[in-house]
Amino acid sequence: MRGRDPAGVEARDEVTSARRIVVKVGSSSLTTAAGGLDADRVDALVDVLAAAHGERREIVLVSSGAIAAGLAPLGLDRRPRDLARQQAAASVGQGLLVARYTASFARYGRRVGQVLLTSDDTSCRAHYRNAYRTLDQLLAMGAIPVVNENDTVATDEIRFGDNDRLAVLVAHLVRADLLVLLSDVDGLCDGDPSTPGTSSRIAEVTGPADLAGVSIGSAGRAGVGTGGMVTKVEAARIAAAAGVPVVLTSASRAADALLGRPTGTFFHRTGRRSTSRLLWLAHASAPRGALVLVLDEGAVRAVVDRRSSLLPAGISAVERASSPRATRSSCWTPRGARWPVAWSTSTPGEMPKLIGHSTRDLARELGPTYEREVVHRDDLVVLTP
Question: What's the whole-model pTM score?
Fold first, then answer.
């Protein structure tokens, strides 16, 4: 449904009714092309977010820009390729970034809380829960969390996709009503937006069919970020499938986006909000290796169709394991079209003696600890390629 905003413009109801909002902004929207923070751009974004916060909306800001902000102060004319200099730039730039946000929000009497996350904080379940408690408490105390990856010590995060996937995880983590992805382009186009007259903006995406045949570009024009439209669209699809609507637009139109005006591209919900554990398992977990199992037809029906636990009797073979301590299972099925991603309770070394046996027989032969499922249904996600 649609209503009207105070100016009489048709508004998106799912946006105007959202009370807890995660806003992600990319490096190119905060810095100059040569690196270094652009104070005017930061202040313009804060003006919008502070206004929304003043309307009793809770805001979580996922901000890229640490590495980009550190380039100019370190005399670097472009983003370095080597990890050591990327981490050095992040170390300098993160302090500048949070200091700029702190000073800018202080103009409105708003407090800022810095939250730096690493892969452990999204892949380790205990850390994931602790991150939720921290963010929830900051919001309860009226502060605005500013979230970024801890690029100073990270290795894989620096190649994570410009915080787009992190923003989705944070949106789900804090149970946000809306995710707003801000970049340097006004939404998704059906062609190359840099060539005038050859493309038009896609106003709404209601499902995967709306993206069929759309050519999606790569990194932004500024050259200081690592993401691009590919990572933003993928993030929007993950969020929408998990029940969180998304607005994808330019940072210059952030105010219109939060007012629900028809700017950018609006991704409608395509699925229900799942449990945090399942989203974490599907998109944030980083287990020790992978174990590939082959299931029989009965197990396929139980796991894929009925969402039941995977029992050892339904496994016909162990195809391969990338690590002797692998904990994640990817299951090949006779259908070949879908496979579960799961957290296994058994290691590759145990699998051969479990295959094809009932849990009752295993308990009798090997002991009561083996009377268990290989993967519990609460630890199983079925992905569709």
Answer: 0.76
Sheet holding 328-332, edge to edge: 315-321, 290-295, 328-332, 339-343, 380-383
Q: Which residue has the higher pLDDT, 213 or 156?
A: 213
- Residues near 247 by Cβ (< 8 Å), separated by ≥ 6? 12, 15, 178, 179, 180, 181, 257, 263, 264, 265, 266, 267
Q: What is the pLDDT of residues 130-169, one digit of tens each?
A: 888 999 999 999 999 999 987 666 555 434 446 888 898 8
Alpha carbon distance 81, 66 (integer Å): 15
Residue 119 has pLDDT above 80, yes or no: no
On whether the CB atoms of residues 49 and 206 are closer than 8 A, the answer is no
What domains lie within the chain, and their CATH numbers? 2-280 (3.40.1160.10), 287-383 (2.30.130.10)
pLDDT (0 to 100) of residue 255 = 97
Helix axes 125-140, 276-283, angle to 10 degrees: 120
Residue type, 334: P
Q: What proportions of the chain, in percent to the nearest 5, are helix, strand and coil?
A: 40, 20, 40
pLDDT exceeds 60 at position 80: yes
Q: Find how far residue 271's CA is from the centre of its chain.
A: 16
32 φ, ψ (degrees, to nearest 5): -80, 165
